[in-house]
Amino acid sequence: MISKSLKKKDIYKKFYEEVGISESTSKKILNDLIDILKICIRKNDLNLKNIGTFKVVKKNKRIGRNPKTKEEFIISERNSIIFIVSKNLLKKINQN
């Protein structure tokens, strides 16, 4: 299961193989977990102990450019999410 990108399918597949529950149940658990995370992030910043913090950042309107044509366009105002890794997780990753 080592790859550069991780898909939901990979997560719930690994989950039902390891835990021994049905595939449909593991899909439901994963989807419910993602829904809970979305709700928590929308309401406020989400801090997962020993993993990291998800923060909502407001990005202002700005001018963007097409690198090929150099044509300018407006990038609208929007919210974005950033993830800050916890120091404990960073230490564990760097120990190996």
Secondary-structure blueprint:
Elements: H1 8-19, H2 23-43, E1 46-48, E2 52-59, E3 62-65, E4 72-75, E5 78-85, H3 87-95
Antiparallel strand pairs: 1-2, 2-5, 3-4
Helix pairs in contact: 1-2
Q: What does this 3D model show about the protein?
A:
This protein is α+β, with helices and mostly antiparallel strands and 96 residues long. The protein has two domains: 1-43, no CATH class; 45-96, HU Protein, Chain A (Irregular). The chain has helices spanning 8-19, 23-43, 87-95, and strands at residues 46-48, 52-59, 62-65, 72-75, 78-85. It has a three-stranded antiparallel beta sheet with strand order 1-2-5. A two-stranded antiparallel sheet has the order 3-4. The longest helix has 21 residues, at 23-43. The chain starts with 7 loop residues before the first helix and ends with a helix. The mean pLDDT is 89.
Largest sheet: 3 strands, antiparallel
Number of strands: 5
Task: Give the H and E element order.
Answer: HHEEEEEH
Report the principal-axis shape: extended
Mean pLDDT over the full residue set: 89
What count of helical segments does DSSP give?
A: 3
Parts with pLDDT < 50 across at least 5 consecutive residues: none
End-to-end CA span: 19 Å
Q: At the first level of CATH, what is the class of the largest domain?
A: Few Secondary Structures
Oligomeric category: single chain
Number of domains: 2
**CATH architecture label of the largest domain:** Irregular
Rg calc: 19 Å
Give the strand order of the largest sheet, numbering strands 1, 2, ... along the chain: 1-2-5
Which structural class matches the secondary elements? Answer: alpha+beta
Sheet-strand content, in percent, reads 25-35%
